[in-house]
Amino acid sequence: MLSFGGQTALNCGVSLHKSEILQKYGIKVLGTPISSIEMTEDRQLFKDAMKKSDVPVLESAPAYTLEDSLKIANMIGYPVIIRVAYTLGGKGGGVAHNEYELHEIVTRGLGISLVNQVLIEKYVGNWKQIEYEVMRDNENNSVIVCNMENVLSMRVHTGDNIVVAPSQTLNNYEYHMLRSAALKAVKYCGIVGECNIQFGLDPKSNDYCAIEINARLSRSSALASKATGYPLAYMAAKIGLGYSLDELINKVTKITTACFEPSLDYVVLKMPRWDFKKFEMVNRKIGTTMKSVGEIMAIGRNFEEVLQKAIRMSEIGKYGLVSNNNDITTDKDDKRTRDIESIEQALIYPDDNIIFDVVDAFGAGLPIEKIYELSNIDPWFLKKIKNIIDIELELKNCNKFEESLVRKAKQNGFSDKQISNILEIDELKIRDLRKKFGIKPVVKQIDTLAAEWPAQTNYLYLTYGGGVDDISIEKREGFEKSSVIVLGAGPYRIGSSVEFDWGTVNMVSGLKENGVKEIAVINCNPETVSTDYDISDRLYFEEITFERVMDIYEKENPTGIITCVGGQTANNLTMKLDRNGCYILGTRSVDVDRAEDREKFGKLLDSLNIKQPPWKKFATIGEAKKFTGEVKYPVLVRPSYVLSGAAMKVVWDDEQLEKFLNEAVVVSPEHPIVISKFLQEASEVEVDGIGGNNQIMIGAIIEHVDNAGIHSGDAIMCIPPWRLNRKTIDTITEYTIKIGNALNVTGPFNIQFLVKDDEVSVIEANIRASRSMPFVSKFIGINMIEIAAKAILNKPFPKVIKDLWLKKSGFAIKVPQFSFMQLDGADIVLGVEMQSTGEVACFGHSLYDALSKAYTAAGYSLQLSGSALITAGGQRNKEKLLPLVKSIQTMGFNVMATEHTAEFLELNEFNGIQRVFKISEPERKPNIADLLFQRKINFIINIPSTSTIEKYVDMLNDEYQIRRKAVEMGIPVLTTIEASTSFVKTLEWLKQNNPTIEPINGYNNNPI
Amino acid sequence: MRTRTIKIPTIYQKYTGYRARLLLENGKIFDGIGFGYPTRATGEVVFNTGMVGYTESLTDPSYHGQLLCMTYPLIGNYGVPSFDIKDEYGLPKYFESDKIHPRALLIHNLSEIASHWNCIKTLDQWLYEERIPGIYGIDTRELTKIIRIKGVMMGCLHVTADDEIDNLVLEKNLRSDRYEGKNFMNDVSVNKPHVFGKEEDKTIVLLDTGTKYSIIRNILKLGFRVVQLPWNTSFEDINSYSPIGVVISNGPGDPKVCNQTIDTARRLIETSTPTLGICLGNQILALAAGADTYKLKYGHRGQNKSCKEVTINQSFITSQNHGYGIEADSLKKSEFNMWFQNPDDKSVEGIIHKSKPIIAVQFHPEASPGPFDCTFVFDKFKELVLTSKTDQI
Questions:
Q1: CA–CA min distance B15, chain A (Å)
Q2: N or C terminus of chain A with fewer C-beta within 10 Å?
């Protein structure tokens, strides 16, 4: 089955077919056949197929060269959209308004397409973008499971679009015209299983066209599954096995047929989550290339409600569409008084802030018609946004708690916090008042059939758009009737991704196995397993906010709530929930606070006689400068309660410190900053553990391959530690147990250490599940979260061999995956801010066995001959590179270097260095730009000077250009000495060895 | 693609904000906001699970005598198009008859704005013009569940701009009106023949028991001329038009009250006239053939149900709107076999004569609202008409 693992699996399957490996071993492709995949992936074949099935397509033609593309674009007329064949997430495509833009996009696109093909197509940005999810079996029974409408029209890639289901602005004729077209197209292409088809629909006539078919389960399918309660992947798998649709049963009613089309009696809205703030120089505009890193889905009974819910779910520091005032987390440019011109520009060229730009546009007095004209957002959606603004105004004018008005606000998605901000009444007071007036949300079920048949599952959401609860929860007593709420992790974003969903799901099964009767999960991320309605007894597809968790807690009246597996989102609620009467299961919140509050934690470490790098908290810049004078630069600056390094920065001198504190953060007594000494050339080590039953179980000690300074989420990690001595390991073990015991940890925790010259100090302790726990669990073959479940329930731990992780024979390597390609302009130099969007782990019998596989899995191409480009900033970096360059030359690589680096190498008696010229000097040949485009460079070592003071001034702009172009061409770029060393050593290893291929227990099943 | 200069009209609701109360037969009261025309309406409360198509549903004569609840919460989004937009046969493209048939509309949320290139008015304005009341702001899911659990029941809606709402009056209205056993034919059928299509084409008679325009559209699309006759037209009168086939349409109410149509149907079967029954027409043919019909607990109304063609074992998504059905066991007493079946409650969704060119479906092959997946039923009918032995009856 090729259609379940996304584009990666699909491409892999096609390659296996093309290289006749499938044929060789007599392997049959189940479900959608290869021929259908090719028909939908190759633009020309797709177009032909659509014509034959009588479905219109846009005027377009494929191009294999730049010259072709220019001709085609002239024929069709600008603007045109360039789509790249066989890539994921619209990677590399774009809209060209002129020849110049075309040149750039096509060159890049041809480079990354597996088949060196791009499609030049008429651009219809103002059309509606409508999608249908189709199920089809071997006997041509086919159904549409869901249709979806993209609020931001064709302009924006559906992955970056705000999407509603079902469509809101299509009438019956249009809905079914496109539905019929979808079925015709899918039948002709021979899809067996599930696929997604995208249409463009003229907002001013019945003209439409098919844009593309994804012959596989996609992000949209996941969304459609959650939006409707129809488990698409499950059904598609059954169909792949040969079942027909009418033989399958609807998993929600457990009695009606699966051969039906879900009817929704609610509205669903998906909002993408972007993380541009983590990147310097990134272009935040959204368009035809997907840039978001995650998404959330809101369910409600009207558009206003789901829009405001969705904004809160995105966790971008907002309480809703409006009334986000008085808070430092809101954007500094979040003001209603922008000049009209900048608003209009923002509407024409949307970025991640588009929905708030619309609010500004209304604030500036633009009429709906004008906003539509600029933004292509249908007036229907605009009016709904306007409703929210109007209600805010009503509340402002009323200026007191007025029952009917508050009820109306709640029905339109206002949070207590927003109302609190407007009325200047405390949030909790608002909560009490509205409860007194009986203004409470109701629980509704998602049943796939709009209440026509009773649902046997508890897939739930809360809404103010209704009068009665769909379900009633009986009162329980005693452990036998225990019930627990587990908080999930919210949207995938940089720093919080599938690892915390893994935690949530395993916590649920761990609790179940240990006798908890009923488990409710709260989460809002449609891409997750925890939001499958058969994971828990009751799934609340809801916001993970204080207000909503309390609403659910009051309805559930559970034995307790678990906040330690959902990452930072869930964890941050612990204190407030505790204070408001929720029983927190796991480590007590006072102890969690003792770990998170830097001062308390510092005192704790002092009392345990454990070192940490010197640090201090400041409320003014003057004090800060005094401290940095004492400890000397570099220092690490950050606010307390950080989320994955947001706003963290390494600072190298006074000037930079002032600039950062004045421009990028707020410094005040309420919002103090913490400055700590930044240790250079130290190794960073992490420990994952579980505490409980008066004991501490250490999962593993993990060492970073990079030196400290790279965010732990971006670092390459290794188990066991690859360069620590036994004494250091013992010290770390001892510290871990001391800290764990001192904090009375009950459940999962993670401690980060620095090791320099065998001296161990502590960076921080997080009393919750960590990002690396799935990795550790896979390596040691023990599920740490299930042990955490035992800890939380006070059940004894299973017997585990002491230092199990150290006794495994193999090595485990985790390598981060970055998405710089999708982020125009983003620089790829790593730092204390996390930037990776995913990760891979590989196992091996030796460090390099594991590393070589991990690099390959992360998408590096490991060529054993060819050319390497080497450039380094600063004398020290250049010196450190010398042994590496030696190794590279010894392996037979041609070494290229820019002028200064080449000069330095020659001074150090290297011969045969090829001099190449900077991208900023295109007239000088050989030029790096040309070499990159001609694929004459196999990998690049580009180490910026240690200090980032002048990172983006002109002289370094050139380095940035090199890194950027290389990313666009898919060439590995290594930006630290350690990363380069491990990369080069891996190549050396590969010269002599082949990576092993074994099941995971071949690497971890044999304690020495 | 040409660029158009037409703007998307954005029209705001006008006839709304009234006091409104819905009382159900079981005593349950729903208070909401009234819209459309302020008046009282009594009828059988039914729900439809379709997510689009309120203009088509509201003009479907099969809803005559009923209060229609839409389970999809957001209604009125794309407004109401002009009756002047006609299809290639001169019939209004977005409507199924020339007026609103349900006695009231029950919804969760009425769109404040109508946004569509072809809309000329809002839903509330249309209801106002047709003197139909509506209520929104009620928990339609709760209402739907009541109907599902207790079965369809009578309801009375009072929408008022100024009066107090008197529960006693609502109750009195509720008690004094009945849906069951009522003959609505004179309200929904034509009272004289109407002819569509080209003179030179062969004639199909459409026996109008409350037909939707789309049935006429689909017969015309087959290349036939349509003569639409009143529901009580005799077999002999039908014959006088020399049809090559007959279609018995959809319509409201209990089929058993359509005695005259059943008699005519019996003659059509006896004479082996190529016949297609749709919805009510399906039930009438079954009754004429000696089978029995019954009232469903809460009916089938939606666009998402599959029906299995039992002879080829293939499923199709259908558009449905029926409160009565054919008793499956009773088919044994007739010369009909089951043709389509609802896989969920195993109810009969279509019948086919064992030897004669007569077919009927309980669902709506003409769609509108709903999916077009079953238009092949019309093709099948055409095939039957053209291959049956005689050119004329």
A1: 18
A2: C
